[in-house]
Amino acid sequence: MKFENKVVIVTGASSGIGEGVAKMFLEEGARLVGCGVEPQMKIESDRAIYVQADLTDPAQAQNVVDKAVEAFGQVDKLVCCAGVTFIGSLETTEYSAFLREVSINLGGVFNMCKAAVKELVKSEDPSIVTIGSDLGVRPIPERIGYCPSKAGVIMLTKCIALEYAPKIRVNCVLPGLVRTPMIEQRFEEAQDPAALEESYASLYPLHKMGKVADMANAVRFLSCSKDSGFITGEIMNVCGGSLI
Ligand SMILES: NC(=O)c1ccc[n+]([C@@H]2O[C@H](COP(=O)([O-])OP(=O)(O)OC[C@H]3O[C@@H](n4cnc5c(N)ncnc54)[C@H](O)[C@@H]3O)[C@@H](O)[C@H]2O)c1
């Protein structure tokens, strides 16, 4: 068990990658504080609590940390999975929608890290992992807010890693496409879901989509100081070779 007695905050634990990451930490013995915009998460455990929060609001991010300390007395690890994807180009996207996406994907990471570092610095084994995207490095059409917001997450990760070294290690995972509720609607609307999956797989040199477990494995490695204790400010591409 890699995280026995550690207290871990996972944002976006109510869905998709965050939910998978949260389950991984529970399996590895951690006590879990999940958060997200949904009223609750699906995970049930006597070692887990859930705090509903819109992380664009600094006070709500602070409340997640306060509830973690109230329930478990400390915070050792933070994983920022919460995020949204809006589809649109420069021409079709209103400034308000652009700002909203940046506010959730980048501002939410800022707010959560800012609230959590006050507790993380007290831990003997602290770390932060952020979830960016390969699209934060390699733009595609119709993601005018998403790509810049994820590029920002990469740089924010490096800035926090620099500011909090040597105390807190801070690293970023860049997933490729993973079939989660974030993209499930595209499969529901597709005439031929198998053909859609094949077309997504063909975007990657490894010729497949990613799995939630691929992301959880990367987060496990980067959060465990025995495995990655000499790594900080790094970007781990878990995207089937799309950035080769
Ligand atoms: N699924 C993919 O293909 C893919 C690819 C690359 C990167 N990512 C990134 O991985 C992360 C997780 O994506 P997913 O596919 O699991 O998405 P998802 O839609 O399944 O889950 C998103 C989670 O974010 C939370 N969230 C959204 N807005 C929030 C807010 N304002 N405040 C707090 N929480 C909020 C939701 O409550 C939910 O728990 C995101 O940052 C996403 O950009 C996903």
Spatial sequence of strands, sheet with the most strands: 3-2-1-4-5-6-7
- By DSSP, the count of extended strands is 7
**General shape:** globular
CATH architecture: 3-Layer(aba) Sandwich
The CATH homologous superfamily is named NAD(P)-binding Rossmann-like Domain
Taken in chain order, the helices and strands follow as EHEEHEHEHEHHHHE
Domain tally: 1
Classification by helices and strands: alpha/beta
The CATH topology corresponds to: Rossmann fold
- Give the amount of beta strand, in percent: 5-15%
Radius of gyration: 17 Å
End-to-end C-alpha gap: 34 Å
CATH class: Alpha Beta
Main beta-sheet strand count, sense and barrel state = 7 strands, parallel
- How many H/I helical runs? 8
Give the uncertain stretches in residue-range form: none
Report the average pLDDT across residues.
98
Give the helix proportion (percent range): 40-55%
Small molecules held by this entry: nicotinamide-adenine-dinucleotide
The gist of it:
The protein has helices at 16-27, 58-72, 95-120, 146-164, 181-189, 193-201, 212-223, 225-228, and strands at residues 7-11, 31-36, 48-52, 77-80, 127-131, 169-175, 235-238.
